[in-house]
Design goal:
By secondary structure, the chain is of the alpha+beta class. The protein has helices at about 5-25, 30-35, 40-55, and strands at about 55-60, 70, 80-90, 95, 105-110, 120-130, 140-145, 155-160, 165-175, 175-180, 190, 195-205. The strands form 2 sheets. Strands 3, 4, 5, 6, 7, 8, 9, 10, 11 and 12 form a 10-stranded mixed beta sheet that branches. It has a two-stranded antiparallel sheet with strand order 1-2. Helix 2 crosses helix 3 (about 40-55).
């Protein structure tokens, strides 16, 4: 008899099932952790142990790639998972050099992304700094952004300053200038005559 799963356990189980169907075997602990956005092998191990106890899978200790799914596909929790490229780090503080090439991927649930459809237009960035903590974006989080060149007042955006420095802030257009506002009273606003909006934040992934 299987038991109810937490949101994290559903994501782990569905990710394992997708990889088994795609490659014919389960991923390693590290590979599974990378797919889940940087979860450590120890944290992945704990999730697999919990899933085994709930009757969803069986795996020999020390041999995660020999994992066996115990429930038929129709019994697995249905999740709409999107594979989003992680393209670097973004400053939630002082601007840093702009991100460049993809360095990996993170799986996110489509239902948790603001605005719904549009998986192909998404990208992910690792957050460095704490200037957006009052917007529930912390140092070490992964933000999911939708590529777009425009924003309205109050949007949290990935903004490019001087064509080469990126920052994560709330966007406000004022007379003759743009104000990029932090969500932390200990950081100052950033003012510029113009900025390049790279995308709007539509989701946040946190790994404990």
């Amino acid at each position: 008899m299987v038991r109810e799963l937490s949101a994290r356990q559903r994501q782990v189980l569905t990710t394992v099932a997708q990889e088994v169907r795609r490659t014919g075997r389960a991923p390693t602990l590290k590979a599974l952790g990378d797919l889940l956005g940087g979860l450590s092998p120890a944290a992945v191990h704990l999730q697999l142990v919990a899933l085994a106890k709930k009757g969803y899978l069986r795996w020999p200790r020390g041999r995660p790639q020999a994992l066996e799914l115990l429930q038929p596909a129709k019994a697995l929790p249905a999740l709409d998972l999107w594979r989003v490229p992680v393209v670097g780090a973004i400053a939630a503080g002082a601007p840093i050099d702009a991100f460049e090439a993809p360095e990996g991927y993170v799986l996110v649930e489509g239902a948790r992304i603001a605005g719904g459809a549009g998986g192909a237009s998404l990208f992910a960035l690792r957050v460095e700094g704490d200037s957006m903590v009052d917007a529930c974006i912390q140092d070490g989080d992964v933000v999911i952004a939708r590529r777009q060149a425009t924003a309205i007042d109050g949007d949290t955006v990935v903004a490019l300053l001087d064509g080469e420095r990126a920052t994560l802030k709330r966007f406000y257009r004022e007379a003759g200038r743009v104000r990029l506002a932090p969500a932390n009273p200990y950081y100052p606003d950033i003012y510029a005559e113009e900025v390049q909006v790279q995308g709007k934040v539509v989701g946040v992934v946190r790994y404990c």
